[in-house]
Structures are given as C-alpha cells and as structure tokens.
Design brief:
With 453 residues, the chain is an alpha+beta fold. It has one domain: Outer membrane efflux proteins (OEP) (Up-down Bundle), CATH 1.20.1600. The protein is built from 10 helices and 6 strands; from the N terminus they run αβααβαβααβααββαα. The strands form 2 sheets. A 4-stranded antiparallel β-sheet has the order 2-3-5-6, with no helix packed on it. A two-stranded parallel ribbon has the order 1-4. Helix 5 packs antiparallel against helix 10 and helix 7 crosses helix 9. The longest helix has 68 residues. It is elongated. It starts with a helix and ends in an 8-residue tail after the last helix.
C-alpha cells in the first residue's frame, strides 16, 4: 500500500475512533444523568418548571398593576387636543361678518373683521383633578387590593397543589421500586425452590407434582414481576411529568418512606386549617371585593366634584390664549332606577360571597377529617402488616425446614412463600398509603410540610 493511501486509511480509522469515543462518552453522560434526588429537591424543580404556578404568578402581577391603576385615579389628568380645519370656501361666519363690517364702515363705525383665510387651527389643554367621588375611588382601590390578595392566595394554593402532586408521584415511585424488589426476591426464592424440588425428585424424595407446582407458581410470579417493572416505568414517567421535566429524565430517589405515630388531634388540625388554608384567604378577599362593589354602586347616587382648568387658543380668530378655571359638580337626578338595581345586584353578590366563605370552611374541615382518618387507617395497616410479616417469615422458615426434612409438602412450602410475599406487599402498600395520606393532610391544612406533629 502506498504511503498516501496508508495515511488516508489511518486517518479514516482515527475519525471512526474519535466518533466512537464520542458516542461512548455520550452514553456515559446519559448514565450520569441519573442523579440522586431528595423530595425537597424534587419540589424545587417542580416550582421552577410548573406552568400552572407560572400562570398563577402572572395573575398576581396583573393584580398588582390593577392596584397601581386604582392609585393613579386619585391624581390629576392632563389632556391636549389639537385642531386644524381647511375650508374650500370662506365659512358662513366670515362672510356675514364681512358684510356687517362694510355696513358699519358706511355708518362711520370701525368693526373688527375675522380673517377671511381658509385655514383654521388651534389647541386646548384640559386639567381635571377629582375632589369628591362619593367614595368610589377609595372603594375601587380597596377592591383592587382585595383582588391582589385573592391572586396571592390562589398562587399559594397552586403551590400547595403542586407540592402534593410531587409528593404523591415521589412516593408512588418508591412504592413501585419496592414492589419490584419484592417480586424479584419472590422469583429468586421460587427459582431456588424449583431447583431444590428437582434435586429431591431425582433422589426419589418427592413426587414430580412438587416440581410442577413450583414451576406453575414461578411462572405466575414472573408475570407479576413483569407487571411490577412496567408499573415502575409508568411511575417514573408520571413523576417526571409532575416535575415538568423531560419524561425520559432518570433520577435516583434518595429519600425513603417512613412513618411515625400521629400525635396531633383532629380538632387541632382543623383549627390550623382554618388559619392557613389559602382558599379561605382567597374567599375572604372575594368577600372584601364584594363589599367594595356595593360601595362603588352606592357612589352613583352621590355627587361627583372635580377641579377643572382649561386653556385654549385658536387661530386666526384669537390673538391671546384663553384660560378657564372652576369646580364642576355632577349629580344624577333620575336614571330610571339603574343605580338602584346596580346596588341590589352588588348586595346579592355580597350575600353569595358570605355563603361561599361558610361553605369553604365546611369543605376544609371535611378534607382535613378525611385525610386525618386516612392517616389513622394507614398506621393501623402498617401495624398489622408488620406483625403479619414477622409471622409469615417464621411460617416460611418452618415450612422450608419441614420440606427439607421430608415431613412437609411442597404445597405448604409454596403457600408459605406466597404468604410472605403478600405480607411484604401489604406492608409496602400501607407505608405508601401513610406517606401519601400525610401529604394530603398537610395540603388539607394549608401547609407544605408535615411539620405539624
């Protein structure tokens, strides 16, 4: 092979090696993405990427602008109007004035004649300062502030909902992971039993039916193992969706499920909920808005007083600007009952807001009670599962010993294995139920962490 050809060949292999290394490095980078993630870190990620939270934040910013608008209504308003007109022929006013001027000249009097040009222009500056609005401006400003409080409370509620969803998704992944481990251990144990039954059958110690029973149960466990793996994949996808990240993002969840006795009383939890629930704060803000709406409607029966200053100048008829200043008062004398019906409508909405606040308090208490009882039920289930698991382990040990000694049957051994797997599953599910119920109780109380014990 010639030198140049050899160089090209070596260069080509070098490119392939570099590309291959890059691909391999990319794969390693993908594996490194499976970083450890605590529950608090997961919540922080969701807070940054949640579109629902972003929309709630936009509502708060819009409400802040509304407050600024209501504040600006107290100040003066200055407007400038400009005018320019061009006529094809002299306006009638100029023609008449010219004729009167000629008549006055014949009589010996001097009369000013308007300009007979075809272009007329001028400007007007108008200043208006509200002095009294029948409490309308004050009520409007208070209503805007109440609306801001409502938006802020809705933002807090959205954040609490997001925290709950992340917690549920996090604990669901932990549940699915533990279920996969349980099924993997069950399959491994049953595979060992199948191998053991085969060796005993060859030695003439057990009938062939022992092998068949073990193999049938092994096949059933493998099916459940496949379902557990698929459930884990689905749980991880749902978790990534709750976080607002790419659905293929890989995380290793660092926190583990645990439990502790519930020391807080139900009444205490409900009282805290009435204090901290953002939905109740939002209802209070809506109630304030309804009260101010009544005041705004009533202002229609009161006079409106404003200071007005106006300066105008027009050419060619005026040589000096004209300045006007005064106080203007306006009051409605008759409007066919419009204001009366507006007040009645606002008062009905106020009654609705009062009823809505009472209804929300009832809903909050109900949600707290339901979540509280779910926690109690989960704690009871955990206690039962722990005791059952200990018994199942002892039962399996006894059945295994008896089977190996030739005094027990394969069916007893399989039943004991199934019983242990079921108790392990029950315990994991009860633990997951507890953690999710605690998250729901925290949400029902209007707090983001279970720090109320």
């Amino acid at each position: 092979m010639k030198s140049s050809a050899w160089q090209k060949f070596a260069f080509a292999w070098l490119i392939i090696a570099v590309v291959g290394f890059g691909i391999s490095s990319g794969s390693s980078a993908e594996n490194l993405k499976a970083e450890q993630l605590t529950l608090d870190q997961a919540i922080q990620i969701a807070m940054k990427s949640s579109l629902q939270r972003q929309m709630a934040q936009d509502d708060v910013q819009a409400a802040e602008e509304k407050v600024a608008q209501s504040s600006s209504a107290y100040g003066p308003k200055l407007t400038l109007n400009g005018m320019y007109n061009h006529y094809d022929e002299q306006p009638a006013l100029v023609t008449v004035s010219t004729g009167l001027a000629n008549l006055a000249n014949q009589l010996g009097d001097s009369v000013a004649v308007p300009d007979d040009g075809l272009d007329y222009y001028g400007y007007m500056i108008h200043l208006e300062q509200p002095l009294y609005t029948g409490n309308k401006l004050t009520a409007t400003h208070r209503q805007a502030e109440a609306n801001l409080g409502n938006a802020a409370s809705n933002l807090t509620a959205a954040e609490n909902d997001l925290v709950l969803e992340v917690k549920k998704a996090y604990y669901t992944v932990l549940l699915a992971e533990q279920m996969e481990i349980t099924m993997e251990e069950a399959v491994g144990s049953m595979e060992h039993h199948v191998a053991e039954a085969k060796s005993y059958f060859k030695a003439g110690m057990v009938p062939r039916i022992d092998i068949m029973r073990a193999e049938v149960k092994l096949a059933d466990l493998k099916q459940k193992q496949l379902m557990a793996k698929n459930n884990l994949r689905l749980a991880k996808t749902a978790f990534n969706y709750a976080l607002g990240v790419n659905l293929n993002t890989a995380y290793v969840l660092k926190d583990q499920m645990s439990y502790k006795p519930l020391q807080e009383q139900l009444n205490s939890c409900q009282e805290k909920a009435l204090t901290y629930r953002p939905e109740l704060a939002a209802m209070k803000a809506k109630l304030d808005m309804a009260k101010q709406a009544v005041e705004i409607a009533k202002s229609g029966n009161k006079p409106m007083v404003a200071l007005e200053v106006e300066k105008h100048h027009y050419e060619p008829n005026e040589s000096n600007p004209t300045l006007l200043m005064g106080v203007v008062a306006t009051v409605k004398l008759y409007d066919s009952g419009m204001i009366h019906h507006q007040i009645a409508e606002a008062e009905e909405k106020l009654k609705k807001a009062i009823t809505g606040q009472e209804l929300m308090e009832r809903v909050v208490k109900l949600e707290v009670e339901q979540a509280y009882h779910n926690v109690e039920a989960a704690l009871e289930a955990i206690a039962v599962a722990e005791e059952s698991q200990a018994q199942a382990e002892e039962t399996l040990h006894m059945a295994d010993t008896s089977y190996k000694a030739g005094v027990g049957t394969s069916l007893e051994r399989i039943d004991a294995e199934v019983g242990l797997t079921q108790t392990q599953t029950n315990y994991t599910q009860a633990l997951s139920m507890y953690n999710i119920a605690m998250a729901q109780l925290a949400r029902a109380m209007g707090i983001q962490k279970e720090d109320f014990q």
